[in-house]
Amino acid sequence: MEELLNWMEYIEDVRQERQVRHKLKDILAIVLFATLANADDWVEMALFAKEYQDYLRRYIELKNGILSHDTLNRVMGLVAPEIQLYWKWQELLNRNEGEALKKIICTDGKTMRSNKRKEGKPSHIVSAWSREDGFCLGQKAVEEKSNEITAIPELLDRIQVKGHIITIDAMGTQKTIAEKIRKKRADYVLALKGNQVGLHEDVELYFRDEKIRKKLQEKKKYVCTIEKAHGQVEKREYYQTEDIGWLPQKKEWKGLKSIGMEEKTIRGEKGNGKSTGIISAALRRMRKHSGEQ
User: Fold this and answer.
1) Contacts of 259 (CB under 8 A, 6+ apart)
2) Is the pTM of this model over 0.70?
3) 258-268 and 104-112: which strand pairing?
4) Which of 127, 126, 157, 129 lies closest to 143, judged by CA?
5) How many CB atoms lie within 10 A of CB 191?
6) What are the beta bridge partners of residue 121?
């Protein structure tokens, strides 16, 4: 990261020096971090910078505070088009200097219904793709969705996952798969549903406790998003905790470090038709510089 920020120092600033209030390096860093956080426009980027300015100050000065979205738009319009922040970030990820920066490798199965032949079953493909890079790292065909449990470990053996984060849906939430990922020296985020009944119930009961929710909110272990679309309002609440010493199954899941929950509430514009669903997820998070193998 230091290398990337130093590179920003040498990008030519064509603005009139006496009218400059915000360093070009600060603006470029805000745009990069906000883009990586899925901000899609200048307004979202400015809001991101305002919300996370304490974090940003670890890397940039922000001498005159957070700039407006209009300033972001205007300044980035002056930057030479050959300055590719994203590709510079990718270079950092793909070199040894980027080993501490984890990529998310999404593992999922899809039924290819369009290739069904006569009375035969359509193919089911298990794929692993890099969210940051935007391309597939490997695939394995299986006869049925239930075969994903055996296909995922074989797929992981074919690709380089060391130091990255593997995400898998509930079908692949198996103790043997978690152990395989740890042996490959990667981390995991596993969706937790009814296929692991006991663990799912314990996690869900834990997060239903209002006192626990309030405590997690105070500790900033909570995020809430609200979106409006198709005549309804969708609210998503996320909780995470590393306080799992109480969890009976902790030792059964190799390297388990924390648990989390997503709660979704959907309401119509008039406040009717409320429906709430809870999805729990078991997460494993590597302790930085722990030397853990």
Assistant:
1) 203, 206, 240, 241, 244, 247, 280, 281, 282, 283
2) no
3) unpaired
4) 126
5) 19
6) none
Give the 3-state secondary structure of residue 34: helix
Nearest residue to 199 via CA among 234, 174, 163: 174
Tokens of 147: 């075969």
Contacts of residue 26, defined as CB under 8 A and 6 or more positions apart, other chains included, come to: 60, 61, 62
Handedness of CA 15, 18, 19, 21 (dihedral sign): positive
Query: Cα dist. 205→195, 235, 276, 282 in Å?
Result: 16, 20, 15, 14
Burial category of 59 from C-beta neighbours within 10 Å (exposed 0-12, middle 13-18, buried 19 and up): middle
How do residues 224-266 score in pLDDT, each as one tens digit?
Answer: 999 887 778 888 899 999 999 999 999 999 989 999 998 888 8
User: What is the rounded distance in angstroms from the CA atom of residue 197 to the CA atom of residue 186?
Assistant: 25
Residue 181, strand partner residues? none
- 153: exposed, middle or buried (C-beta count within 10 Å: 0-12, 13-18, 19+)? middle
234, 263 Cβ separation under 8 angstroms: no
- Name the residue type at position 268: G
